[in-house]
């Protein structure tokens, strides 16, 4: 479905985004009020200590030179050294990222797994009991904050029924999946609610579209009408919505990791903010932003493979 | 000629905010093999619902009553599976807007081949070859290169040709064409009508053509049925009905067609508007707009009665109209 030309075009288009991300993450720290050096060292530091760190961080040089150095290091994969733990930021981030990625991917997967079939059922039973129940449940899910849902799931399934661990990440890959199930479900519910509402409406529209009628008039089996003609068209807008929500999902991961005590990038971000660990904040922001834009790119490609009108 | 389709007492109720209301009531007509019937009437008169009722392509919870006999076999009440085998295979349908009736995300070739897959024994290669043939038959240049195109890569006229190719994939005996040229500009309209006429001849196919355009009916159909407020108010051969209309509504329609040089204009409607689904009265539905109405018209509904062999009208005053059209002649 996808032409190589289109994929290359989209890959090239991501370059300005990446440049923009580097500029912004650089500026975030430089433009903060106050001097990063004194902020890092805290109130008790002497002026001499602050001045030394200031010079060490290159903060006394012109902004453009600072940026040049920063960009050069970033391109080489060097994200600086954490001021809190004195380790390369790249290593710390790489250490914490897998948990967050796994959590986000699992959540996205669970959200789709919940949203697509339920939207289908709701749309096909429009206005009947099944539809009302599904919509009602998701309405409730949508109106509750992520941490609250997390706490409820924890109380019931971890603390109460003891089906799942209360927190942590486990040591093996399978244990990771097991540990991350409840947090991923927590994260998935609100996204599933958003996707399901959108997809239900899109399916209802597609069901009454002329092309669905024409497909039926051709004598195609209901299965083919529903899956080839209706669902495929309906998924286009849902994929777009899904892509737009990837950033929110990562944001939600931060909160969820805190509730479930998962040593992921979200926790790292919060810890680094408390520790005023600017290099880590910067490096992590950069990596997360790049991940979000890659995710956008992937959604675009999926969308283009669903909708030939996009891939022009 | 043998009777292909015979519809009697067809009544279709649709779910509206005011409950189930009849969009089509007590419709009777027959169609012979290779016959062509024009179905005309103002917007909302129930032309599309009539066509869709034949194949039961209706919204959920619609009710169909009466009888639709296809080659002697009753279709009303037929299980969905049996009806599905008929759709596209024996009775095909094309729509007004090819852009929205073609699936935007599927290649034209696939949209033809999926029909062949359900209705024929052709293998993959056979289906593809037949798809090329069908596109060529409907006048699409270099068809083998257009097979992998998507609908948006076709022009308006080409899309209508493609839709016709898809509908005719399984060589149906009857084509239901619901305003197939309304969305097209005039020169393309002519091409499509000529294409339909040629295909009908070559494939020996019958057709019901829904249109607002009486000139199109005159050109493409042997017989005509005029619908008003969900009912057929007059039907007969094109010659009978156009030369001597026996229903005031038909007369009004014919008078609102500008004669001579510009025959392809949309109907200018008669003074007033047709009643909505909820407001259909006991008497003749046309009575409030009718210049011939008497007291009887407000209380008793005139039945569709034969006036001459093959010519019927539903009007108490049909006799007075005879004199009138004689005067005009
Ligand atoms: N899905 C539906 N639900 C409820 N009412 C409907 C539905 N489809 C059509 N109707 C109503 O049924 C009546 C007949 O509609 P129909 O589409 O058959 O008219 P038509 O003669 O084809 O008009 P047009 O020339 O505009 O296509 C109209 O009053 C319309 O509002
Ligand atoms: Mg219509």
Percent strand of chain B:
15-25%
Quick one: overall form of chain B? globular
Number of spatially distinct domains of chain A: 2
The largest contact between protein chains, plus residue counts on each side, is: A-B, 23 and 32 residues
What's the CATH first level of the largest domain in chain B? Alpha Beta
How would you describe this protein?
The complex is a heterodimer of chains A (312) and B (329). Chain A is mainly α and 312 residues long. Helices cover 77% and strands 0% of the residues of chain A. Chain A is built from 13 helices and no strands. In chain A, helix 11 (246-259) crosses helix 12 and helix 12 runs antiparallel to helix 13 (278-306). The N and C termini of chain A lie close together (12 Å). The model of chain A has no long low-confidence stretch (mean pLDDT 86). Residues 263-268 of chain B have low confidence and may be disordered. Chain B has two domains: 33-56 and 80-221, Rossmann fold (3-Layer(aba) Sandwich), CATH 3.40.50; 227-328, no CATH class. In chain B, helix 5 (124-137) packs across helix 7 (156-167). Chain B has helices spanning 47-55, 80-86, 98-101, 108-119, 124-137, 143-146, 156-167, 186-203, 214-220, 238-243, 248-255, 295-299, 318-328, and strands spanning 3-16, 19-32, 36-40, 63-70, 73-74, 91-94, 174-178, 206-210, 223-228, 231-237, 305-308, 311-313. Bound molecules: adenosine-5'-triphosphate and magnesium ion. Adenosine-5'-triphosphate is lined by residues 14, 16, 23, 41, 43-49, 59, 277 of chain B.
């Amino acid at each position: 479905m996808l032409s190589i030309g289109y994929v290359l075009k989209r890959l090239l288009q991501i370059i300005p985004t990446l440049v923009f991300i580097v500029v912004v993450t650089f500026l975030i720290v430089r433009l903060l009020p106050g001097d990063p050096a004194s902020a890092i060292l805290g109130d008790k530091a002497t002026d001499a200590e602050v001045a030394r760190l200031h010079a060490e961080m290159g903060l006394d040089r012109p902004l453009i030179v600072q940026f040049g150095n920063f960009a050069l290091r970033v391109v080489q994969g060097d994200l600086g050294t954490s001021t809190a733990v004195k380790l390369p930021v790249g290593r710390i981030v790489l250490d914490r990222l897998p948990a967050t990625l796994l959590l986000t991917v699992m959540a996205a997967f669970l959200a789709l797994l919940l949203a697509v079939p339920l939207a289908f059922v709701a749309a096909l039973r429009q206005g009947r009991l099944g539809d009302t129940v599904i919509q009602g449940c998701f309405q409730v899910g949508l109106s509750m904050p992520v941490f609250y849902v997390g706490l409820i799931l924890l109380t019931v399934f971890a603390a109460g029924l003891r089906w799942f661990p209360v927190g942590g990440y486990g040591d093996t890959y399978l244990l990771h999946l097991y540990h991350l199930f409840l947090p991923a479900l927590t994260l998935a519910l609100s996204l599933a609610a958003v996707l399901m509402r959108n997809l239900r409406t899109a399916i209802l529209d597609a069901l009454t579209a002329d092309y669905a009628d024409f497909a039926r008039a051709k004598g195609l089996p209901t299965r083919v009408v529903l899956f080839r003609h209706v669902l495929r068209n309906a998924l286009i807008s849902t994929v777009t919505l899904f892509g737009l929500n990837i950033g929110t999902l990562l944001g939600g991961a931060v909160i969820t990791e805190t509730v479930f005590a998962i040593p992921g990038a979200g926790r790292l971000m919060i810890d680094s903010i408390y520790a005023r660990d600017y290099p880590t904040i910067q490096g992590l922001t950069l990596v997360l932003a790049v991940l979000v834009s890659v995710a956008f790119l992937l959604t675009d490609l999926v969308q283009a493979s669903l909708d030939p009108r996009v891939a022009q | 000629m043998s009777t292909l389709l015979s519809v009697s007492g067809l009544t279709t109720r649709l779910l509206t905010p005011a409950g189930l209301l009849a969009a089509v009531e007590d419709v009777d007509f027959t169609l012979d093999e290779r016959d062509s019937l024009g179905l005309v009437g103002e917007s909302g008169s129930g032309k599309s619902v009539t066509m869709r009722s034949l194949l039961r392509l209706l919204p959920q919870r619609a009710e169909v009553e009466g009888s639709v006999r296809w080659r002697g076999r009753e279709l009303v009440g037929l299980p969905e599976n049996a009806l599905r085998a008929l759709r596209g295979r024996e009775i095909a349908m094309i729509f007004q807007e090819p852009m929205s009736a073609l699936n935007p995300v599927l290649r034209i070739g696939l949209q033809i081949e999926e029909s062949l897959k359900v209705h024929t024994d052709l293998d993959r290669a056979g289906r593809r070859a037949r798809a090329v043939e069908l596109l060529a038959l409907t006048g699409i240049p270099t068809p083998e290169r257009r097979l992998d195109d998507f609908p948006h890569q076709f022009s308006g006229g080409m899309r209508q040709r493609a839709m016709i190719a898809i509908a005719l994939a399984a060589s149906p005996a009857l084509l239901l064409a619901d305003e197939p040229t309304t969305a097209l500009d005039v020169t393309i309209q002519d091409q499509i009508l000529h294409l339909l006429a040629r295909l009908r001849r070559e494939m020996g196919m019958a057709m019901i053509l829904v249109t607002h355009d009486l000139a199109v009916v005159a050109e493409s159909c042997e017989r005509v049925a005029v619908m008003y407020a969900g009912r057929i108010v007059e039907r007969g051969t094109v010659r009978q009905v156009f030369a001597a209309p026996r229903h005031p509504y038909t007369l009004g329609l014919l008078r609102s067609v500008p004669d001579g040089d510009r025959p392809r204009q949309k109907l200018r409607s008669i003074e007033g508007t047709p009643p909505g689904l909820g407001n259909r009265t006991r008497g003749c539905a046309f009575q409030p707009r009718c210049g011939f109405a008497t007291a009887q018209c407000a209380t008793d509904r005139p039945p569709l009665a034969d006036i001459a062999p093959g010519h019927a009208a539903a009007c108490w005053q049909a006799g007075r109209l005879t004199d009138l059209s004689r005067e005009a002649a």
